[in-house]
Each structure stands twice: as structure tokens, then as C-alpha cells.
């Protein structure tokens, strides 16, 4: 099992019996200091300036007859050691000086606090080296102590880039490209082999089974708390087949600002188009995943996975949506999960789509078809018809909202004449729900042109539904029956399963099940427009 470079650093010091470390923290050494936190047997001495620090290490080495050990950050932290390094080296004092450094991909680009400390000190040390690979770190540290003390003693400088110290919180981000490439089995194997957690976009959902212990959830403005938090807290984001659109990034300038991003995509123009990445890889998703499977080794991600699991338990999606009574989106999708295990599920666009992608379980057999990139209302029903024609032996379920359903409702006729028993689930809240939710939360409840019960005789201003609202038009049950389909209306939670079971019995006739849900049911969590992903509204009084 691999451990982080920072943990290797501590273990290497312990192997060399280092009991005193003269150290001054900084950004490019912060992971080393984090790994040292609470470590027993190593006393950390914090002087008030790096030059004083190295002279103190020099005095310690001369007086105690041991190797003096220093740790500072990059840039000025490193250059402030130079006089002390020269002083000790000329007097043959054994010192090992560790300096933080910017990430390897930034070296040579005049990055913030980047200096070539190896080049600066080469003439005044016995050996100066930059660690280029994490697997070389332990060996280099052992060699450093040997050189500092062998023959004529002197000074060794070991420069450790920040990315060599890290990679204890890796994360896979999978997009629709993984599903398009049919790389789901290989991707699951890769996640299992590396023990790296997985998050997905809406289009990437199902690339790893949603009940897999490594699967975290969907990312984005309606993503799960754990997925959004994970992408903000990880240190390496390995994204495959992702477009990084605004629905998954939130505020672009604050999307994973401190994370090294590796991006695999078959389309070169998609890489660094919206989010600048550190390592671009132009490749087919399946070929890339297979190549990784051949090269990768297990990672020690136990603490990271436990941290993510705590977030999932504290802020579960079901807790934000489920209520004890009434028909809820979660209760509808939960019953679909329970009853249909080898199905094709299509969605329309709006709240119905978001609830489905939050709660639908995809385990390698059930497939999800949705308009992810363009967000086309009216997609759900005709897509279900096409899916049934293409997969006649599979159960096909269309999940629609009452608004999107009306955009292509005439296609019930197509399902009837071709004798296609598609199951049409309409979540009816009487609104264009997604826009209404934004109006409620961000526009002072100004419900402009979103109420589908509106009549010309209604008051000019309306900010909430009431008992006096007009009846809904159309009557979906009667309309389905007029086409020759069957209609079922569900108003109580206990009616959900029987209605779906009845629909599943049909062999040649499409069944429309209308679910009457709360008119102001919201999709939660939600990231307010223009905010970073970690600024989520969770529901109730709990915000994160």
C-alpha cells in the first residue's frame, strides 16, 4: 500500500533517529508540517527567522554530535538558509536541510515562491537534489543522511515539491464519456484496485454502480453534499469524459482551486476549455482506463474514505427530500428502484430530472437516458418510445414533469399504435418547477409565468399556491385514456407501489401514472448561482 509523501518524510526521519527538527512553516511545506503534527519523539523547534534556524541546527549538530535537520518552505524560506548552509559546509558540519518547493508541473514557470534552491546551493553543499518521484523520496532521504555524515561531513539540501508530499485525497470524476465508451466495468475495476472514491456528473451516473461503497454521488449545483465537498477537499482530481460545464463547476474561478486536475477526453478542444487542467490526456475513455489498470497500484485512502462517509451520513440526500406523509419525489424513485432492476429509465428536464439523477440506483443493468448537455424539455416520452423499440424486452419508464410532459404528450398516440407498454410517470406540482424554485429562492417568490394552473382571471401577482387555485389543465388521466392508453392518479404514498405494479403488468398498452406532489417541493441541495460548490443550501435551517 502506498502512503503520502509527507507520511514517508516523517517515517524516514524516524528511521534516521531524528529527535530534533528546526523548522519554519510555509505554504509549500504545509503538508510536511501536517504529517508532523502530534508525532511523538520529534521535537520541533520554531525559531523566528530561517537564518537563525539554520545556525541553530548548526550549533545543535556541533554540540550534540548529531546531524542537524532543518525544514523550511520554498522561495524566501529556502534562500534564507543559504548563509547558514555555507557556514556549516565550510566547517564540515553535518546538516540535512529540507525545503518545500512548488509542484513539479510548475517548476520553471516562475511560479509564486519558486526558486531553484538546488542550483543556488550546489556549490556550497555536498549534495543538493530535487525529488521528482514520490517513490524516490525515502531512498533520497536515506542517502542524504549518509552523505552528510560520510567522509568529510557537510550539508545536503533535499528539495521536495508540493505534489510529491501530497496525493492522500485522490478522487475520480466521471462524465458521460465513460458511459459512451462502455467503460463502466473497467472503471469499477480501476476504482476498486486503487481504492479511490468516485463522483459523477449527471451524464456519468452509472459508470460505477451507485450502490458501490466507493461511489459518493453526483457533483454540481444540485449535487450531493459529500460529492461537492469531496471535489473541494481532494488534492488530485482525475476526471474522465467530463465537459466541466457550469452546472457541475459552480463559480468557475473557485472550482477546486488548489487541486491538481488530470483530464482525459477524446476531444482535444474539450480539455482546458472551461477549467484549466494540469495534465491533459487526449484518449478514448475505455483505452485510458485500461492503461491505468495495467499501471496503477493500491493507494492508502482509508482516512479519506472515512471522511467522505461521514459527510454522506451527516447530509444524506434522502433526508433532505423525504417526509413521513404524502407523495414525494424520493418515495416515487425509491419504488422504481425497488420494482425495476433491469430497465431503461428516461427523464424529461427540470426538477423531475434532478430528483431522478439524485435518487435513481444504477447497478450495471438499469440504464439512464437524459438530456444532460442541452437540457431539452419534451425529451422524456419520445426517448422512452425509442428505447422500447430498441430494447423491446426491457421495462422502460419515462419520468416527466407536468410541464415537459405537455411538450410532446401527443406521442402517447405513437406508443398506443405501436403497442408499446412504456410506463410514464408524471410528477405533477402544477408549476414549471425548476424555474419556480429559483424564483422562490433567489427572486423574492415572484412566480412569473411558471404557474400551470394560471387563468386570466387570477390576481396579477402571485407568490404561492392556495386552496383557491384553478383546476389543473389538462386532466392527464383522461387525456391518456383519450389516446387509448391507461391513466392512474396517485395522491397517497401507499398508492405508489400498487400503481407501478399495475403499470408493470401491461404488455401492449402504455400506462400513465400521475403523481400529485407538493406544489412547492424543492430540489436540494442547491448551490446559489455564482457561488462555489461548497456554498450549498441544504434545506430547513441546515446550510453548509
Q: Secondary-structure map with pairings?
A:
Layout: H1 5-15, E1 20-23, H2 30-36, E2 43-45, H3 50-64, E3 68-72, H4 76-79, H5 82-90, E4 95-101, H6 117-121, E5 127-130, H7 137-149, E6 155-161, H8 162-165, E7 170-174, H9 176-180, H10 184-194, E8 198-200, E9 215-218, H11 225-233, E10 236-240, H12 246-249, E11 260-265, E12 279-282, H13 285-295, H14 302-314, H15 317-321, H16 329-339, E13 343-347, H17 351-359, E14 367-369, H18 380-390, E15 395-401, H19 402-407, H20 412-417, E16 423-428, H21 433-442, H22 476-483, E17 486-490, H23 496-504, E18 511-516
Helix pairs in contact: 1-2, 1-7, 3-5, 10-13, 11-14, 16-17, 16-23
Family: Belongs to the TPP enzyme family.
Pfam families: TPP_enzyme_C, TPP_enzyme_M, TPP_enzyme_N
InterPro entries: AHAS_TPP, DHS-like_NAD/FAD-binding_dom, THDP-binding, Thiamin_PyroP_enz_cen_dom, Thiamin_PyroP_enz_TPP-bd_dom, TPP-bd_CS, TPP_enz, TPP_enzyme_TPP-bd
Q: Could you list some keywords that capture this structure?
A:
36% helix; 16% strand; 544 residues; six-stranded parallel sheet; alpha/beta; elongated
How would you explain this protein's 3D organization?
The protein has 23 helices and 18 strands. 48% of the residues are buried. The chain is elongated and about 100 Å long. Helices cover 36% and strands 16% of the residues. The chain has 544 residues and is α/β, with parallel strands linked by helices. The two termini are 34 Å apart. Belongs to the TPP enzyme family. GO terms for molecular function: acetolactate synthase activity; flavin adenine dinucleotide binding; magnesium ion binding; thiamine pyrophosphate binding. Its cofactor is thiamine diphosphate.
Amino acid at each position: 500500500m502506498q502512503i503520502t509523501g509527507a507520511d514517508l518524510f516523517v517515517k524516514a526521519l524516524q528511521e534516521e533517529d531524528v529527535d530534533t527538527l528546526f523548522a519554519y512553516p510555509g505554504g509549500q511545506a504545509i503538508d510536511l508540517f501536517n504529517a508532523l503534527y502530534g508525532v511523538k519523539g520529534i521535537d520541533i523547534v520554531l525559531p523566528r527567522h530561517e537564518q537563525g534556524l539554520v545556525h541553530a541546527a548548526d550549533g545543535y549538530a556541533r554540540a550534540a554530535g548529531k546531524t542537524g535537520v532543518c525544514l523550511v518552505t520554498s522561495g524566501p524560506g529556502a534562500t534564507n538558509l543559504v548563509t547558514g548552509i555555507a557556514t556549516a559546509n565550510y566547517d564540515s558540519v553535518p546538516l540535512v536541510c529540507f525545503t518545500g518547493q512548488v509542484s513539479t508541473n510548475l517548476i520553471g514557470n516562475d511560479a509564486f515562491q519558486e526558486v531553484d534552491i538546488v542550483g543556488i546551493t550546489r556549490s556550497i553543499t555536498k549534495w543538493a537534489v530535487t525529488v521528482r518521484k514520490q517513490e524516490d523520496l525515502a531512498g533520497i532521504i536515506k542517502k542524504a543522511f549518509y552523505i552528510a555524515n560520510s567522509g568529510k561531513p557537510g550539508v545536503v539540501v533535499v528539495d521536495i515539491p508540493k505534489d510529491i508530499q501530497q496525493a492522500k485525497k485522490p478522487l475520480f470524476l466521471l462524465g458521460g464519456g465513460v458511459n459512451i465508451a462502455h467503460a463502466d466495468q473497467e472503471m469499477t475495476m480501476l476504482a476498486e484496485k486503487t481504492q479511490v472514491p468516485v463522483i459523477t456528473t449527471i451524464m456519468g451516473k452509472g459508470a460505477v454502480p451507485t450502490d458501490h461503497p466507493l461511489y459518493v454521488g453526483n457533483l454540481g449545483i444540485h449535487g450531493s453534499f459529500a460529492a461537492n465537498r469531496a471535489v473541494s477537499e481532494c488534492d488530485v482530481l482525475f476526471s474522465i469524459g467530463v465537459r466541466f460545464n457550469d452546472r457541475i463547476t459552480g463559480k468557475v474561478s473557485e472550482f477546486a482551486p488548489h487541486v491538481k486536475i488530470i483530464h482525459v477526453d477524446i476531444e482535444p478542444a474539450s480539455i482546458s476549455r472551461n477549467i484549466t487542467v494540469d495534465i491533459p490526456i487526449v484518449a478514448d475513455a475505455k483505452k485510458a482506463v485500461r492503461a491505468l489498470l495495467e499501471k496503477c497500484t493500491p493507494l492508502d485512502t482509508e482516512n479519506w474514505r472515512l471522511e467522505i462517509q461521514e459527510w454522506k451520513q451527516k447530509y444524506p440526500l434522502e433526508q433532505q427530500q423525504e417526509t413521513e406523509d404524502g407523495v414525494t419525489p424520493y418515495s416515487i424513485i425509491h419504488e422504481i428502484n425497488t420494482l425495476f432492476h433491469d430497465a431503461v429509465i428516461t427523464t424529461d428536464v427540470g426538477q423531475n430530472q434532478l430528483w431522478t439523477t439524485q435518487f435513481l440506483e444504477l447497478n450495471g443493468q438499469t440504464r439512464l437516458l437524459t438530456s444532460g448537455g442541452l437540457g431539452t424539455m419534451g425529451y422524456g416520452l419520445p426517448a422512452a418510445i425509442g428505447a422500447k423499440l430498441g430494447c423491446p424486452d426491457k421495462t422502460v419508464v419515462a419520468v416527466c414533469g407536468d410541464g415537459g410532459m405537455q411538450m410532446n404528450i401527443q406521442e402517447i398516440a405513437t406508443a398506443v399504435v405501436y403497442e408499446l407498454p412504456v410506463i410514464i410517470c408524471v410528477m405533477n406540482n402544477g408549476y414549471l418547477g425548476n424555474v419556480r424554485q429559483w424564483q422562490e429562492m433567489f427572486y423574492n417568490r415572484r412566480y412569473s409565468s411558471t404557474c400551470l394552473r394560471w387563468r386570466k382571471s387570477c390576481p396579477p401577482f402571485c407568490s404561492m399556491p392556495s386552496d383557491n387555485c384553478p383546476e389543473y389543465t389538462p386532466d392527464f388521466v383522461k387525456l391518456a385514456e383519450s389516446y387509448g392508453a391507461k391513466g392512474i392518479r396517485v395522491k397517497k404514498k401507499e398508492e405508489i407501489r400498487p400503481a407501478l405494479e399495475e403499470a408493470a403488468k401491461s404488455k401492449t398498452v402504455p400506462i400513465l401514472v400521475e403523481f400529485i406532489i407538493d406544489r412547492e417541493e424543492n430540489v436540494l441541495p442547491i448551490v446559489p448561482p455564482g457561488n462555489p460548490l461548497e456554498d450549498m443550501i441544504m434545506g430547513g435551517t441546515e446550510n453548509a
